[in-house]
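Reminder to self: C-alpha cells first, then the designed residues, so the page reads top to bottom the way the pipeline ran.
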C-alpha cells in the first residue's frame, strides 16, 4: 500500500497525514479537505476497501466460469457420445428389424408360393378326379344303355316267342275245335240216317 493512500485513509478516519487527531470542531477544514478529494483518491479508496474482495470474486468467477465451461464441454462431449451411441443403437435396431422384415417377407413369399403350388396341385387333382368321374359316369351310362338295349332285345325276342307259342296254341285249339265240330256234324248225319232207316223199317 502506498504512503499517500494510507495518509488518505487516516485522514478520513480523523487523523491528519502527520498522525494528528482531527477534532470535530477544528473549523471544519478537515471535512472540506475530504470533499476536495479527487476521483482518483476515491478510486484508490475503493481499491483499498474492495479491491481484494473484487479480485477474489473475479478469480472465483473465473474459476466458476472455467469449471462451467469445462463441465459444459464435458457434458457436450458426453451428450455427443451418448447421441452417437444412441444413433448407432437405433441404426443397428433398424437394420435388425429390416433384416427380420426381409426374412419374414421371404418366408411369407415362400409360404405363399407353397400354398399356391399346393392349391394348383389340389385343383389339378380335383380336375383329374372330376374327369375320371365323368368318364366313369359316361361308361356306366353306356353300359346301362347297352344293358337296357340287350334286355329290351331279349324281351322282344321272348315276347315274339311267347306270341308265336300262343299263336300256335290258338291255331291248334282252333283246329281241334274245327275237328270236333266236323265230327259232331258227321255224327248228327249218321244219327239222322239211322233214324230214317229205323223209321222206314218200322
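Designed residues (202 positions):
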Amino acid at each position: 500500500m502506498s504512503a499517500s493512500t494510507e495518509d488518505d485513509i487516516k485522514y478520513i478516519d480523523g487523523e491528519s497525514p502527520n498522525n494528528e487527531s482531527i477534532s470535530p470542531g477544528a473549523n471544519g477544514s478537515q471535512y472540506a479537505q475530504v470533499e476536495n478529494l479527487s476521483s482518483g483518491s476515491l478510486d484508490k479508496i475503493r481499491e483499498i476497501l474492495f479491491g481484494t474482495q473484487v479480485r477474489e470474486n473475479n478469480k472465483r468467477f473465473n474459476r466458476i466460469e472455467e469449471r462451467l465451461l469445462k463441465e459444459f464441454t464435458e457434458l457436450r462431449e458426453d451428450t455427443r457420445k451418448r447421441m452417437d451411441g444412441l444413433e448407432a443403437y437405433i441404426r443397428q435396431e433398424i437394420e435388425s428389424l429390416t433384416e427380420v422384415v426381409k426374412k419374414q417377407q421371404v418366408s411369407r413369399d415362400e409360404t405363399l408360393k407353397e400354398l399356391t403350388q399346393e392349391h394348383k396341385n389340389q385343383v389339378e387333382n380335383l380336375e383329374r378326379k372330376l374327369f375320371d368321374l365323368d368318364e366313369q359316369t359316361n361308361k356306366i351310362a353306356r353300359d346301362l344303355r347297352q344293358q337296357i338295349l340287350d334286355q329290351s332285345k331279349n324281351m322282344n325276342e321272348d315276347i315274339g316267342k311267347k306270341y308265336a307259342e300262343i299263336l300256335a296254341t290258338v291255331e291248334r285249339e282252333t283246329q281241334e275245335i274245327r275237328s270236333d265240330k266236323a265230327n259232331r256234324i258227321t255224327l248228327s248225319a249218321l244219327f239222322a240216317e239211322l233214324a230214317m232207316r229205323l223209321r222206314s223199317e218200322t
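Residues 1-28 have pLDDT under 50 and may be disordered.
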